[in-house]
């Protein structure tokens, strides 16, 4: 359960949340998703810092499930692959068949977190 939304500082907001949210979006559809998934009703993911060393991933497609917490230190790691991590977390929570998860993990995905601060500045400018 995610609690304690922490308002991002400055005009750039939280670069780690922003990049994680984009990475999660670019990696749709996830294991266990039906083919009906789309962004008709707006962005699927919202990521925010909770202030206790975690970021919360809210997934509108999984409204009936608890939100997922990821350690903020992981998002600060340029080599962290938030999409693969998230896929494994929801596959475990939703009892997705191992073969479905393995097939998903083989697909081509966007780059890892990278330099979130630099990428956020580039997006804003």
What does this protein look like?
By secondary structure, this protein is of the alpha+beta class. It has five helices and three strands. The chain has helices spanning 15-26, 72-76, 82-93, 98-105, 116-124, and strands at 45-49, 54-59, 68-71. The protein has a three-stranded antiparallel β-sheet. A hairpin with an 8-residue loop joins β2 (54-59) and β3. The protein starts with 14 loop residues before the first helix and ends with a helix. The mean pLDDT is 82.
How many strands, what sense, and barrel or not for the largest sheet?
A: 3 strands, antiparallel
Parts with pLDDT < 50 across at least 5 consecutive residues? none
SSE order in H/E notation? HEEEHHHH
| Averaged pLDDT | 82
